[in-house]
């Protein structure tokens, strides 16, 4: 039997089951991550002509030339970051706000920054709608991080850098973890997990990904 993924009459419970099945089949197995991804409706973060594709496991365009990552990549990055309930997390690249909303259900506080004012404002409106009061979103140059709030237990970068940015590594606590896509912006990139130790930094390669590039400075207002 063929299932029409664009059927507006689809039962929400069936849609949610299919969404979670997609996540599990692509390696998202952490029960805490799955629970929060079941609770946070991705449909709230996808608007306009792509709204009917919100529950597909695919990246989709959002304003300002950015994208909302595919759900399985959001899940795998969150799982790799392994945020704890007492952690403070910095996210570089607010985008639609979906990743920050997922993180907010797993840690004590999320700071998220984006260079595009429009994206920050639209994400903040959704955070208020969902009652997510532990997220602080602001317009800032993500390549510089948030030194005034550092150090962080976890840092998640949702844009690709040629190397893990030194300014962000410096804002990571000893024992902290950063997950960042690394590689040329026009080629396949590698998702890297960096763990800060007393002796320096340990690097683990996780998987191949493709993200928009990490750009210095602020976007046009």
UniProtKB/TrEMBL annotation:
Protein family per UniProt: Belongs to the methyltransferase superfamily. L-isoaspartyl/D-aspartyl protein methyltransferase family.
SUPFAM superfamilies tied to this protein: S-adenosyl-L-methionine-dependent methyltransferases
GO biological process: methylation
Primary localization class, coarse: cytoplasm
Name the record gives this protein: Protein-L-isoaspartate O-methyltransferase
Keyword Lipid metabolism on entry: no
Xref: InterPro entries: PCMT, SAM-dependent_MTases_sf
GO MF annotations, alphabetized: protein-L-isoaspartate (D-aspartate) O-methyltransferase activity
Pfam family, one: PCMT
Localization in the cell: Cytoplasm
Key words of the record: Cytoplasm, Methyltransferase, S-adenosyl-L-methionine, Transferase
Highest taxon above the source species: Bacteria
Top EC class, one word: transferase
EC number: 2.1.1.77
Record field: catalytic activity: [protein]-L-isoaspartate + S-adenosyl-L-methionine = [protein]-L-isoaspartate alpha-methyl ester + S-adenosyl-L-homocysteine
tRNA-binding as UniProt keyword: no
